């Protein structure tokens, strides 16, 4: 028998096991928008009762939500985010930022106001040392104390690439991309300069047929493109488009969340550095107006349906 595949330890992989699922992301988004009760989640997400119930149970089991009783007769419960759940906020803001810039779908608009400075703002990924806005091209990485190999254990999920028609989601395309765990892992590989098919397959341990299908899908939504390999003209490489490169802050904030809750006792598998200032990155999401870090209680949402 062949030995089971092993892959690089990765906080993104571990995080995707918890939130890398489109229905789960829709539930988390609904919570940010103020939903607490089952019927509210169902109306906001458009998920079927059984699917919604399953995802709420998993979010409670993973420690992102707490189930609280608010009525005794009959017993009724609401679902409230824990500190661990609230720490997904920066990832959610980066998903919203990317969706606003690049997605063609979606049926509602949102404006954000930073109550601390009183201005409408755009969430910006920034270096915690120098405060400068960062992109994928500004970041270097080195192996961290928690680097190693792990078995690619994962839960099986039904692939879902379309949000329910009744959903009023802010992040349809971003949720579909992060909610397809294999697609997110492919993006992670390409961001670390693994561009050939075999390199990506080895890095992710994805079956060949699934990898081929996901690469085609990622091309179809415009986040990667094939280009000739300059060193091997008979083969191709998968390169990020501008749309794909600007998805980087989503995975960056997801990695930071994973480092906080799922890294090994030795520490994070990867340490990031900001090329421009040369210091450890410690990324933050800041207000585009005042440059202060953004916290969920300090943000107001103004939501409106798009008009045809």
The portion of residues assigned to helices is 25-40%
- From the alpha carbons, calculate the radius of gyration and give it in angstroms: 20 Å
Summed up, the domain count is 1
| Strand line-up of the largest beta sheet | 5-4-13
Mean pLDDT comes to 88
Classify the beta-strand content into a percent band.
15-25%
Overview in brief:
The protein is α+β, with helices and mostly antiparallel strands and 308 residues long. The chain has helices at 11-19, 22-32, 38-45, 49-61, 83-86, 89-102, 172-179, 181-191, 197-204, 208-220, 242-245, 248-262; strands spanning 7-8, 65-71, 76-81, 108-114, 119-120, 123-126, 139-143, 149-150, 224-229, 232-240, 270-274, 284-287, 299-305.
Describe the structure.
The chain has twelve helices and 13 strands. The strands form six sheets. It has a three-stranded antiparallel sheet with strand order 5-4-13, with no helix packed on it. A two-stranded antiparallel ribbon has the order 1-8. It is α+β, with helices and mostly antiparallel strands and 308 residues long. It has helices at 11-19, 22-32, 38-45, 49-61, 83-86, 89-102, 172-179, 181-191, 197-204, 208-220, 242-245, 248-262, and strands at 7-8, 65-71, 76-81, 108-114, 119-120, 123-126, 139-143, 149-150, 224-229, 232-240, 270-274, 284-287, 299-305. Strand 9 (224-229) and strand 10 form a beta hairpin. Helix 1 crosses helix 12 and helix 2 packs across helix 7. The relative contact order is 0.21. The model has no long low-confidence stretch (mean pLDDT 88). It has one domain.
